[in-house]
Design brief:
Elongation Factor Tu (Ef-tu), domain 3; six-stranded antiparallel barrel; rod-shaped; OB fold (Dihydrolipoamide Acetyltransferase, E2P); conserved putative lor/sdh protein from methanococcus maripaludis s2 fold; alpha+beta; 16% helix; six-stranded antiparallel sheet; 337 residues
Amino acid sequence: MAQDQPTAQDGPIAQVKTAPAQRAVIAPKTVVYGTVTLSQESQTVLSLPYAAQITRLHASAGQTVHRGDVLFVARADPGAVLVAEQARNAVVLARGEVERTRVLLAQRLATRSQLAAAEKTLADAEQALAAQRQLGADTGERPVRAPHDGVVVKVVAAQGDRVAPGAVVLQLGHTGAAVPVRVTLGLDPALRRAVPVGAAVAVTSLAAPAGASSAPLTGRVRRVQAAINPQSRLVDTSVELAPGGGADLIPGEPVRGVITLTGGEHWVVPRLAVLQDAKGAHVYQVEAGHARRVPVQVRVDDGAHLGVDGALQGGQALVVQGNYQLSDGMAVREVGQ
């Protein structure tokens, strides 16, 4: 018992604070940066099914629009208008031919097969006209309206441009609490294999007013690209925020992400417990009232704690304060004893 209580004969007695030495699973974290983006499934591509000219453009990138707002006005190309007019004329002619054949049949001057052929021609002409009407090509200008509330992500065409059938004029993104918010983060290529799909991510906006503080938004890694972005030289990593999170974020807003990587089981110690000198990293444990130096290897750093490997003893207290003054075998007394 007397061995556990250092005395003046032991030399200087250091006052220290201790904590239990514990083994647990600890995961490293990495800090990355990126922007708020819209997923492909939450975007609507607006185009025209016929050749046309954009006569007026009312939308610009980043603009918030509501359902029914006019985004642009287009005038069909004369060639597209001609095709629609020909379809209308074909229906008129086919109807006349059906009526004429019916009269001739009544006079026994035409056969039923001729009438069936005329009716078939009319049906084909009506289908062609219906298709042209669905395309919408007609004389005059046609306004194209927003199909839903959202934000204009990209405007491809300019006012006065002539666009081909099916060419993208602009992209419109869905917005609102019901739409999952995505964040694209730039990951160091060396860490690509260390970030599993489903890894937890804490996201914080970098556009918040100075002095404002808010809890980080939680999310999960949805996809890690298998190629390096040629512009950023990083690997694009898609993160989907938890439902309802990030409703106030806007596309393009810069963010900071903290990704929790795959971890392992180690001795988990406070950062201040680990010291470094010429002999390497080490900690001190209390054994029979004296400090025992234990060399360690730092394996994981999660910011607040370190995961270390070494010959630590689970039943011995770990020095977390006052360790900078210790040497191996020095007498110690825990504060409060």
